[in-house]
Amino acid sequence: MITVGLYGIRDTTSRLRTTYTHDHSLAVMRDGHVLSIVEVERWTGRKHDNRLDAVIMELLAALVPPDEEVRFASVTEHRC
Q1: Is there a domain that residue 7 lies in?
Q2: Between 20 and 30 A from 60 (CA), which of 3, 13, 41, 44?
Q3: Phi, psi (degrees; rounded to nearest 5) at 63
Q4: In the chain, what is the straight-line distance between the N-terminal and C-terminal CA atoms, in Å?
Q5: What is the rounded distance in angstroms from the CA atom of residue 13 to the CA atom of residue 9?
Q6: Number of domains in the chain
Q7: Tens digit of pLDDT per residue, the chain (80 long)?
Q8: Handedness of CA 12, 57, 34, 67 (dihedral sign)
């Protein structure tokens, strides 16, 4: 099974915070081993690109083997 870790999902539900999140990225792992990690801005060539929602299908098509079972995990950075 493939695990796809997503970082930088925009928070569109909060009125207290901005919807901009920096350094959107995606990691693909199988059985605890990292297969690939991609920062969205490196993929698109657009500095500070926060459009993970716009390119996620393209990334998945390129990085996830076809006919593979996939689960998604949202990763959030916590700062104290």
Answers
A1: yes
A2: 13
A3: -110, -20
A4: 34
A5: 12
A6: 1
A7: 999 998 876 656 656 655 566 678 999 999 989 999 999 999 999 988 888 888 999 999 999 988 999 999 987 665 55
A8: positive
